[in-house]
Write a structure and sequence with these properties.
With 246 residues, the protein is α+β, with helices and mostly antiparallel strands. Helices cover 47% and strands 13% of the residues.
Length: 246
Amino acid sequence: MPTELAEAGPSKGLALLRAPVPEHLISPLPKGTKAQNECKPEEKTNCNVCGGWHHPKVRHLDYVGHAAATHLLLDADPMWSWEPLAFDAAGLPKFDESGGLWIRLTVCNVTRLGYGHADKKAHMDAGSREKEVIGDALRNAAMRFGLALELWSKADLHDRAGDEREKWLAGLIKTIDDARVVGDVKKATAAALAEAVKRDDQEAHADILIAQANKMARAKVTPAPAAAPASKTAAEDEFSDDDIPH
């Protein structure tokens, strides 16, 4: 393909990046909710979808990895290149304050910007995060050329849905936590569970029950208002200001 491309010219190469990504170059990417990502180690399992180790109910998105993106870029332009937008005093790529990296990606003599970032994970080898940042920046810049654009769109939609779910669930749990009497806690829990059933969200169902248990365990629920004390007799009123002898 690169030979045919060289004969066809740059426009052909750029058009190749807009083509759908072949199935064999698409990999499953685990995309969990905040609660799933922060679950206890004993709740995680080996995944037979992506080969990772995470919460069993994590969803997977289709994505193009670093090697696959490089393969597609080479098909489009064997001479493609990238460079950091800025260099540090030692002449190395300059990462920003959050650890991200801006780059220039040039394909078929067309240059576009991209940005990459990656969270630092526990037990990462030296340099692993930097390589992950570069890979993320390359995919981000390549997306500006149309590479795997349909997959990016799905990921964005999933992220928005995930954010909406987190806000929805947090609101229900806050209602439970703000309840001041046992009856209100039960009502808030019942309403939250009904909403979880409506959404067919079994994980939310469990989180709601945990929130209820935590609320009760923290003993923040106050008893119902007690009956008003009986009015004092005239004799009691007469001596009410007297000090109690010691």
